[in-house]
Design brief:
Blueprint: H1 14-40, H2 45-91, H3 93-106, H4 111-135, H5 145-169, H6 175-197, H7 202-227
Length: 231
């Protein structure tokens, strides 16, 4: 007899994984690009370190605020929809039974079974059933603003710290090649890890983040060279 193989789904990771990957990727790309641009402009080492550190702090706070506000807006919408659904369940319960049964009929159940399933699920937890099957709100995918803000800011700081630290210990003359190499290496590792965590091919994940990181640093270095001033 073949042993049943349990399935380990990854969808519950989507909230924090998205915030962490976005934060780390942005921290590496934006801070490394900033340092490369300033170095290409011929700025002194003190100015380079100052620019990188300021970029780290400002970027981390910006990521935290942006993630919190955007995810909080999503949470507000979810709460408003759930409140509307709760009112409908209280005032028009039979209509809500029919509405839920229609959803199950469209998924392939016959009429009597669809209505029976709807009634049983609503006896168990009516609001949860409608939230999941009518609105599409689940516990795994519900908005978590503080979690998103924390992961974004923390990941950004971690990603940005590498180019900042490397610029503080390495000679200024080597920053134009050292920082990009470190950044691309980190981006490749980050893309691969994120892809594996999400169940996708690691090489594809590494290539796509490296491409955009290289493009960002090249453009910022070109701006620094062109204008000859810190950017």
């Amino acid at each position: 007899m073949k042993k049943h193989r349990s399935e380990h789904h990854r969808i519950h990771r989507s909230g924090w994984l998205r915030a962490a990957v976005l934060g780390a990727n942005d921290g590496i790309v934006s801070t490394a690009s900033l340092i490369v641009g300033v170095a290409a402009a011929g700025a002194g080492k003190g100015s380079i370190i100052l620019a990188g550190t300021a970029g780290l702090v400002a970027g981390a706070m910006s990521m935290a605020a942006g993630e919190y506000v955007s995810v909080k807006s999503q949470e507000d919408i979810e709460r408003a929809d759930l409140s509307m659904e709760a009112d409908a369940l209280e005032n028009n319960r039979e209509e809500e039974v029919k509405e839920l049964a229609d959803i199950y009929r469209n998924r392939g159940l016959d009429e009597s079974l669809a209505e029976e399933v709807a009634r049983q699920l609503m006896r168990h937890n009516a609001l949860e059933a409608h939230a999941r099957d009518e609105i599409g709100i689940t516990t795994e995918l519900s908005a978590r603003p503080l979690q998103a803000a924390f992961w974004s800011a923390g990941a950004f700081s971690f990603g940005a710290a590498v180019p900042v630290v490397s610029s503080s210990v390495a000679p200024a003359s080597s920053l134009l090649w050292l920082v990009p190499i470190l950044a691309i290496g980190m981006l490749g590792a980050l893309g691969a890890i994120a892809a594996v965590t999400g169940g996708a091919p690691p090489v594809r994940g590494a290539v796509r983040v490296c491409f955009w990181g290289m493009l960002a640093m090249a453009l910022t270095a070109a701006v620094g060279k062109l204008f000859g001033v810190p950017v």
